[in-house]
Amino acid sequence: MTITKMDAMRRQVLTAVKLWFDDGDPVAIHTLLFASHEILHTLFRQRGHEHLMFDSPAVRPQYRKEWATALREAGTFFKRARADPTSTLEFNRNLNEMYLLFSIYGLNQMGEVIAQEEQAFMHWMFVNRPEVLNEGAYDSYSIEQIEKLRGVSKKEFFHQAVIAYRIKREGNTRL
Predict the structure, then answer these.
(1) What CA–CA distances, in Å, run from 99 to 3, 28, 31, 37, 58?
(2) pLDDT tens-digit profile of 153-174?
C-alpha cells in the first residue's frame, strides 16, 4: 500500500472524529490527533500558510514556545517512555476538541475537501460549544434548532448528520 503524508493525516483525523463521536478512548483519540496534526502543521506551512495551532497569533509571541510545548505535552507523553517510564499526566480530554477544530480549520484553509465526518464535528461545535467559536459561526441555525440539537447525544448527532448529508448529496428533499 502506497500512501502520502496527506492521506495518512486525513485517515487519522477521520478515525479520530469517528471515535470522538462514538465516545471512544480519549487517549487513543489524542494520539491519532497529535500524530495527524504534526503532519498537518508541516504541510500547512509548506503550502505557504501560517498560524495554525502551534503558532497561533492569538498567543503573544513571547509565549508561543511555552504554548506549543503545553499543546504537545500529552501527545509526547502518550508516545514516549524512555526518559520517564513511571511518570503520570493529568490529561485534559477537551484538548481533543481543540485539535479537531484546528485540524479541520487547517484543512479548509489549504483548500482540502472537508469530509462529512469533519463537517458533522464542526456543526456539533456550533451547537454545543458556541463559546469557542467566533460570533456568526453558527448563524445558519435558529435558536429553536440549536436548543433541540443540544439535547442530542454525540452518537445520535453524528448519525443524523450522516443521514442529512446523504440526503443532500442524493438531492432528495424527503426525510
Answers:
(1) 23, 13, 11, 7, 15
(2) 999 989 888 888 777 777 755 4
Instruction: Determine the Cα–Cα distance for residues 97 and 115; give it in Å rounded to an integer.
Output: 17
Residue that has been written with the C-alpha cell 496534526 in this structure: 37
Query: pLDDT of 126-141, one tens digit each?
Result: 888 887 776 655 556 5
The percent of the chain in helix, strand and coil, each rounded to the nearest 5, is 65, 0, 35
Greatest pairwise CA separation for the chain in angstroms: 58
Q: What is the dihedral of CA 43, 44, 49, 52, to 10 degrees?
A: -150
> Do 92 and 29 touch, CB atoms closer than 8 A?
no
